[in-house]
Amino acid sequence: MSLIVILKFFHFLGLFLAGGLGVANSLLAKEHLLVKEAPSAAVQKTMAKLAKIGLIALVLLWITGFGLAYQIYGGMNLGWAFNMKLLGATVLLGAVIFANVYPPSKFKKGEVPDPKIIKIVPMIARGSLVLVLLGIAIRTSAS
Asked: Are 17 and 61 in contact (CB under 8 A)?
């Protein structure tokens, strides 16, 4: 098996995990915001685990993405669409890191995270995903 196949396998695994966990955590957070109550201790632990696994999945995407870019293209200088994808991926990584730090810090203090902030983070994540998907769709299309 070639290195590219191995990298692609783990890249797709990271993509699958990050997407599914992001959706699950967003749905849990939104439901609790709608009923205006903090998640139970068990749900908080589950949300924290989902966020951590999602962060690990994104780091896996970054590592395998760098490996694939260098193995397939010989570097990262792949044009404006690829740079747009990297911008989106960077913002997404920042949002996921924030999601791993902010809510747990509030829960430890016995507080509920600010609903305005919790509402904005998924919008930022979705917007960054649009950049990622558009960038890769444009970059990998035949011109």
From this structure: no
